[in-house]
Design brief:
Two copies of one chain form a homodimer. Chain A is of the alpha/beta class. Chain A has 15 helices and ten strands.
Chain lengths: 375, 375
Amino acid sequence: MLKVYSYYNLIINKFLYGEVMKNLKCYGSSKILKKVENGNPLFLCVIATTRTSNIPGITGAGATPELTDYTPAADLELVMHGAPKCLSEIPQTVTGDETAPTPAVITKACIELADIPIMVVDAGAGIKPDIPYIKLNDEPGEDVRTGKAVPKTKQIFEKGIMLGKTLSKLTNHLVIGESTPAGTTTALGVLTALGYDAGMKVSGSMPENPHDLKVEVVKEGLKAAGYQEGEVIEDALCAVEIVGDPMIPAVAGIVIGSSVPVTLAGGTQMTAICAVIKGIEPDFDFSNICITTTIYVAEDETSDINYIANQIGNITILAMDPEFEKSSVPGLKSYLNGSVKEGVGAGGAMLVASLGKIDMDDIRAKIEDICRDIL
Amino acid sequence: MLKVYSYYNLIINKFLYGEVMKNLKCYGSSKILKKVENGNPLFLCVIATTRTSNIPGITGAGATPELTDYTPAADLELVMHGAPKCLSEIPQTVTGDETAPTPAVITKACIELADIPIMVVDAGAGIKPDIPYIKLNDEPGEDVRTGKAVPKTKQIFEKGIMLGKTLSKLTNHLVIGESTPAGTTTALGVLTALGYDAGMKVSGSMPENPHDLKVEVVKEGLKAAGYQEGEVIEDALCAVEIVGDPMIPAVAGIVIGSSVPVTLAGGTQMTAICAVIKGIEPDFDFSNICITTTIYVAEDETSDINYIANQIGNITILAMDPEFEKSSVPGLKSYLNGSVKEGVGAGGAMLVASLGKIDMDDIRAKIEDICRDIL
């Protein structure tokens, strides 16, 4: 659902960035592109797991509910080592006869082609990746239905601020992706708790978006924490503590600590980050950040990222199109049917590769090579 | 003992760098200074603990043998937060009536004055600092007397390489300090195992350097691992595994993975790193790195860093002089009597602050302010 698609901006982008940017759609102001076009980006991927992702049917980020605990670690091992170490095969989304590979293949292709430094941040992954990573927090999140989803929210947030300050000295464009199975449910939790209308609007990794289940578990969590339906929680970190996930305060902290432009590389989960930031700093200047996702999230018929973002503020959303319709790999074509859509910062990785003048046809060819290697 | 003090280089340095470099002594070639003078340094501090530091009398890096387990975490909490969180007071070296504060006060002063980004790397600290840090390894090292000091040496080394590659994309001058209590003993272990003459030559954190004890525990470790006295171990990582500490393979890996100039910010411990690097890469080009320490190590009568370094290769050693004789803080004056001497990358921190045109008088004033705040 393209609510705020700006044809005018698209024309400007084409003029400014030529064919390299032909695979970008801009919702909102394209000014952020000017700020980051000659940057030396640092790609960060913040990982976390929660017991929420073990609820059957809630996420496709893993072949079974139990395997979703391994998805973030396996994703980043794939990016760094070329193959997962904690699992025998790569994370996949299985829907009926179709099997779609993790979006980590997109991220890997982009950062390798454009030679972008990548650092992984553990905000609370149940399984740890066998790579060097920055530790912000150890323990995974609980099931949101407990109403005690992220006990150490404040500590994670404060360490995020420290990290954001440090990283701002090392880059002039921070790109922050995430790998958090069932992260759209916890995003819905935080958005709902903070008073935003996000029910039926968050995205998901499966063609059939289980909105009713997501809404139900969030309701249960808020009730367990003593809140009535529709009651707004004023304290943003408290909302995360009750029905969020550990990735959210980590990324919110990094953004608030940062003094350089930030690309939030993700789908509707990143609107929850923006909501938390606004809750903590009501006058936060969103013109220095953007959300960059894939066209599969931006044009998703089962969700509406722009509708959510517009409630929060003037937030630019960029959507990258890898044109998987041109691909010969069946798993990538499944993205066109609504599988996976986004994750591991795939959209943001395509943006920085494109800013680095890598052609989307070359990115897609590299993604296909990676898929052939690992499948 | 100044065996290779190069007056010629000192003159060149004065000519090139003027008064800012008046507190630098250069042993070897000063060419490395040209490579890093306009750099954007990244200061890394690699921390680890071992059971070796619990041997009574072996180290002064903590008020008691048991408290040495807390020293690395407390050091970096002091640098990042302004006070330790895991301890009620800062790490100190107690000798008779004298109490000298941790060299973390020097590091903190320098990185704050010069606004240098700092990242902490956990190579195996028993107590974890309450800050964001990069995890390379979890478990601390064993007592060298077991002959099984660092079981995961190879994994730590390989992750170090990965980290060095990433960090090289974010800086053009990597400065690597360490905080590893009893680290001169484990350095002696590795140097001895690799066939270097280092007995009675490694430095230490106390005025009376317990050389006999250090030599004894190293002998015991090599014997426990089945090696005879004087027998040379060909495999450098094997030497670390038997009688080293977890910091050594981490830093060696980071240096080998790095493609930018590296300052090894430490004393005689850093010669063990060089020995391991040479063992792994016999043709390694040492002209792209240097060891930077304090004048208190370089002019230490109880040790000889140049004597060790010269056995390994053409390694430039720089020594920074904070002129604590001018200080009114008694704990800092204790450095002149042989307490502490170096640690937490203090010498390298003074170098990068000096390259950033910070005057040593201002550095010392800031150190004194920090001491007054925390003591």
